[in-house]
Amino acid sequence: MRPVVSYHQSTMIDYIKNIINNSPTVGVVLGSGLNKLTDSLENIIRIPYKDIPSFIQTTVKGHAGEFVYGTVKGTSLPVICANGRFHYYEGLDYSSVHIIIDIFNQLGCKNVITTNSSGCLVPEWSPGEIMIIDSHIDMTFRDGPDQINKKKGDSYYDPSMMRIAESCMEHIGVPARKGTYGWTLGPTYETPAEVRFLQEYGISAVGMSTVPEIERAHELNLRLLSLACLTNYAVGISSEPLTHEEVVEQANKSGELFTELLSRILVQIDQI
């Protein structure tokens, strides 16, 4: 399905197409502190958001604000990464929050990988581990208290891409965690009481992004894999205070492992 493209969005897409001169196969959204993948690509072209006509600018630390186009090392697979995403709490409307997915779609991407830095709600898991998101719940209550509804299944998360991710995690020796992601509005972190509430709904990781992108990819029938880097325990599970700077720092520490995983996944996506 190709949605109607607004004048401004069409201008943005034409600008990017004129620079990259090729259609990427995979679009990757990089979460807070998870931008090291771009350094591992070859034939890199960087497109700052500020140079794209009418495009939104990032305001959150850890989100550089650029598209990075290149090929995966050792392959001819063309990839475009969004190094910086948008959040509802930045004062944007919902369609602006998922605009990166619209751009990926219009550029010709058939496969999308979203990544994020999340708080871990499972005491038996460890910060630094990676979770494959296999379901999600919108916990923002934007549409009232009756909106809680777990969404899962093949129509959201591509089974073949999830199997590839599991296989790659096993190969590099990290636990293949799978679970439910909960989207909260932010920008403040959850209280211990809110964390207990989220746990009652079976949520394994919590964050302030990603779900609008998942929903948009679903609407556009794009194949999706979504990964959460568990940068910290949610408040109440750990007694340590939490700041955004610490989240970005932990994501940076996990960057090499995350980059290796993503690179292996991309190579195998090229073969399916």
Mean pLDDT, all residues = 89
Question: What is the CA–CA distance across the termini?
Answer: 21 Å
State the CATH class: Alpha Beta
Oligomer: single chain
Placed side by side, the strands forming the largest sheet appear as 5-9-8-6-10
Rg result:
17 Å
Number of domains: 1
- Strand content bin: 25-35%
Return residue spans where pLDDT drops below 50 for at least 5 consecutive residues: 1-5
Describe the 3D structure.
By secondary structure, the chain is of the alpha/beta class. The chain has helices at 7-20, 94-97, 99-107, 159-171, 192-200, 211-219, 244-253, 255-269; strands spanning 26-30, 41-48, 66-72, 78-83, 111-120, 130-138, 151-152, 177-183, 203-207, 223-233. The chain is built from 8 helices and 10 strands. The longest helix has 15 residues, at 255-269. It starts with 6 loop residues before the first helix and ends with a helix.
What is this entry, summarized?
The chain is an alpha/beta fold and 272 residues long.
Topology (SSEs and partners):
Layout: H1 7-20, E1 26-30, E2 41-48, E3 66-72, E4 78-83, H2 94-97, H3 99-107, E5 111-120, E6 130-138, E7 151-152, H4 159-171, E8 177-183, H5 192-200, E9 203-207, H6 211-219, E10 223-233, H7 244-253, H8 255-269
Parallel strand pairs: 1-4, 1-5, 5-10, 6-8, 8-9
Antiparallel strand pairs: 2-3, 3-4, 5-9, 6-7, 6-10
Key structural traits:
272 residues, alpha/beta, 8 helices, Rossmann fold, 10 strands, single chain, 5-stranded mixed barrel
